[in-house]
């Protein structure tokens, strides 16, 4: 299957709707998960945000909570990392930003650079009464700030 120019930035509407639904359901916490595949073959893997659990265990190492951070772990993290060894690796990690907008924060960039996963990052703008949209970021340089740049925007939807 050949892709049209720019199709690497296409997220099927049905999957984007499911990501938005997860963002609404987990609001005011950040939601998280990942996508595998591209275009029409893309699949969604929602994950549990472990940030509150990590913060409770060690608040000094993990000062953030699910209100302003995400971290998926356990079986979901194992499945995610193992998928890079197969023919169908993850292509996008997503998370929501409750109340603060869809931008790639310094914390997002530092975590992405440290992890080194060869994926794009989708950030959802989750507001009190709407999902205001989402922005896809891609790594363009080896180190930041500015290692990740906006490559696509997606429209939001009312709650």
Automatic annotation (TrEMBL):
Going by the UniProt record, its keywords in alphabetical order are: Hydrolase, Metal-binding, Metalloprotease, Protease, Proteasome, Zinc
- What Pfam families does the database record attribute to this sequence? Prok-JAB (PF14464)
Every copy of the JAB domain together lies at 12-128
Q: Which InterPro entries match?
A: JAB_dom_prok, VirAsm_ModProt
Q: Which GO terms describe its molecular function?
A: metalloexopeptidase activity; zinc ion binding
GO process annotations (BP): proteolysis
One Gene Ontology cellular component term attached to this UniProt record is: proteasome complex
Which superkingdom heads the taxonomic lineage of this protein's source? Bacteria
Q: What is this protein called?
A: Proteasome lid subunit RPN8/RPN11, contains Jab1/MPN metalloenzyme (JAMM) motif
Instruction: Say which species the protein is native to.
Output: Nannocystis exedens
